[in-house]
Write a structure and sequence with these properties.
7 helices; single chain; binds guanosine-5'-triphosphate; about 220 residues; 7 strands; binds magnesium ion; seven-stranded mixed β-sheet; Rossmann fold; alpha/beta
Length: about 220
């Protein structure tokens, strides 16, 4: 969509129509806006944003590429630790997707790891650009790790909306994926869990609908 003002329409239309609108939301324009390595998250506009958190290599950057339909808007890598900054991508001139460095990459030095953690924590706890929602990307094969559970605790304590995206579903058979999703949902309790594949785009419409409902 060019930029449909969902808020205005929300005021005018019934909830049922809004659902239809979400269904037709299209990401037509996506561009890199800003890279943050310190704690200056100011953007000079008041556009809403949603953030992508998760373990290194879970596929945060790949999920963003799949959402915007571009192979290389965000750099990805087989080697964990690719993303080192918080990168803001402006979508449809209407909102931002924010790609964060992953946590839990053992090969980083302690000082590098501390820097990453500081960056994430500053954004979660103190930043004045509070995200509308945090999408926690996990590898469906790995499930929720201790670090993910710790992250969920911090996000909840800071009253963030959380959605878990169980990525790399293409790697599992249908029945194995179903079993894994069941397990993850049980552990996630009240948080919704979406199955996803950045490789095949499975779950893309549903994820875009979710994002649209927040921004
Ligand atoms: N099979 C499969 N591979 C995926 C999928 N998503 C990501 N990958 C692969 O997983 C690896 C890591 O992907 P990235 O998107 O760089 O992961 P990241 O979470 O951004 O990693 P960091 O930047 O290190 O935190 C790459 O080799 C991707 O090609 C998926 O849905 N299916
Ligand atoms: Mg990345």
């Amino acid at each position: 969509m060019k930029m449909i003002n969902l808020k205005k329409l929300k005021n005018r239309q019934s909830g049922g129509f809004l659902i239809k609108l979400n269904r037709i939301m299209r990401i037509l324009k996506s561009e890199f806006a800003k890279s943050v390595i310190g704690d200056d998250y100011s953007l000079g506009d008041n556009l809403p944003h949603v953030a992508f958190f998760g373990r290194s290599n879970a596929g945060k950057s790949s999920v963003i590429n799949s959402l915007v339909g571009k192979k290389n808007l965000v750099k990805t890598s087989k080697i964990p630790g690719k993303t080192r900054e918080a990168n803001f991508f402006r979508i449809n001139d209407a909102f931002y997707l924010v790609d964060f460095p992953g946590y839990g990459y053992a090969k980083r030095s302690i000082s590098q790891r501390n820097k990453m953690i500081k960056r994430i924590f500053w954004y979660v706890e103190f930043s004045n650009v509070k995200p509308k929602a945090v999408f926690l990307i996990i590898d469906i094969n790995v499930g929720l790790t201790i670090l993910d559970l710790a992250m969920i605790k911090i996000l909840k304590a800071n009253k963030h909306r959380i959605i878990i995206v169980a990525n790399k579903i293409d790697k599992l058979s249908k029945s194995a994926a179903w079993k894994q999703l069941l397990l993850i949902r049980k552990e996630a309790q009240d948080i919704s869990v979406l199955g996803y594949s950045a490789r095949t785009n499975q779950g893309k419409d549903e994820l875009i609908k979710k994002i649209a409902s927040f921004v």
